[in-house]
From TrEMBL:
Residues 36-188 form the HhH-GPD domain. It catalyses: Hydrolyzes free adenine bases from 7,8-dihydro-8-oxoguanine:adenine mismatched double-stranded DNA, leaving an apurinic site. CDD domains: ENDO3c. Keywords: 4Fe-4S, DNA damage, DNA repair, Glycosidase, Hydrolase, Iron, Iron-sulfur, Metal-binding. Pfam families: EndIII_4Fe-2S, HhH-GPD. It comes from Klugiella xanthotipulae. The keyword Manganese does not apply. This is Adenine DNA glycosylase. GO terms for molecular function: 4 iron, 4 sulfur cluster binding; 8-oxo-7,8-dihydroguanine DNA N-glycosylase activity; adenine/guanine mispair binding; metal ion binding; oxidized purine DNA binding; purine-specific mismatch base pair DNA N-glycosylase activity. Its cofactor is [4Fe-4S] cluster.
Length: 292
DNA sequence: CACTCGTGGAG
DNA sequence: TCTCCAAGAGT
């Protein structure tokens, strides 16, 4: 039995009942969920996604509201630029695609915030197109089951897509299921820390397990910089203040948020550069969320 | 290509 | 406590 068959049969029995897998879930919903899921765990996304889609059921609904509302509705999902980019994508979809989320990978890639993964995920999961979809879970499963390595190492877009293409079944529907299934397997069985090989449909054919779990010696993924004391933390503090405020946040309110003025200024100007904050003078001088 | 960009939960 | 890591993308 092929690897994809094992995965698809397992998926049919074990897929979690996630919102974006319900029948009739919109392409817009898929796009929103994929934005939110970029580097944010499923459990934190689910409640925010529901709120978001209730408030903005189509791209046009979101485009009609200011970007600042999108950033507020993002709450603390992290990487708030994604909210800005999603609002921008909604505007582009409304103005240039007749309000319909595009189904072609090329058109999706042209949207800000949509990269290699998200474009293919939308084309495949929302529209049933046949493409390889490669995320961190997929990469880990392939590294272990096929290459016999405990970790996937740094992403290599071209090679990763090729590897997935070679494993994917020919038939379009089965290919879509396989894309979802191998991700799901990586998410709940072949996890990064403690894989549950006893529950894995690939256990018998897994190259990593077959060679008794050799230690991974290849190139390591870039280490994530410490958050504590980082510019990201300072940005987070400043943006949280702006998100909660009703009017402009003044310098007097920003200053006590962080002791180091150099770092504080750097964080503030980077928020302005990113378009998350803009300078306002009414009714008092300060910074507000960009309403575009 | 290396670096940057949030936040919170699990182990 | 502290480290790791989570459906990535842009520069």
């Amino acid at each position: 039995m092929d690897l994809w068959q094992r995965v698809n049969e397992w998926y049919a029995q074990n897929a979690r009942p996630l919102p974006w897998r319900e029948p009739g879930f919109s392409a817009w919903g898929t796009l929103v969920s994929e934005f939110m899921l970029q580097q944010t765990p499923v459990t934190r996304v689910i409640p925010r996604l529901a709120e978001w889609l209730e408030r903005w059921p189509t791209p046009a609904h979101l485009a009609a509201d200011p970007a600042s509302e999108a950033v507020r509705a993002w709450h603390s999902l992290g990487y708030p630029r994604r909210a800005l980019w999603l609002h921008r994508a909604a505007t582009t979809i409304t103005e240039k695609h007749g309000g319909v989320v595009p189904r072609e990978v090329e058109a999706l890639l042209a949207l800000t915030g949509v990269g290699d993964y998200t474009a293919r995920a939308v084309a495949v999961f929302a529209y049933g197109e046949r493409h390889p979809v490669v995320d961190t879970n997929t990469r880990r499963v392939i590294a272990r089951a096929v290459r016999g390595q405990g970790e996937a190492g740094p992403p290599q877009a071209a090679a990763d897509l090729r590897a997935m293409s070679e494993l994917m079944p020919t038939e379009t529907l089965a290919a879509a299921t396989f894309n979802a299934g191998i991700m799901e397997l990586g998410a709940i069985v072949c996890t990064a820390r403690s894989p549950r090989c006893g529950d894995c449909p690939l256990a018998e054919i897994c190259a990593w397990r077959g060679s008794n779990y050799p230690e991974y010696l290849g190139p390591k993924k870039a280490v994530q910089k410490k958050y504590e004391g980082s510019d990201r933390q300072v940005r987070g503090l400043i943006l949280a203040a702006a998100r909660e405020a009703t009017g402009p946040v003044t310098d007097a309110e920003i200053t006590p948020l962080w002791p180091d003025s150099t770092q504080r200024d750097r964080a503030l100007s980077s928020l302005v550069r990113d378009g998350l904050l803009v300078v306002s003078t009414e009714p008092t001088p300060g910074y507000i969320l960009n309403h575009e």
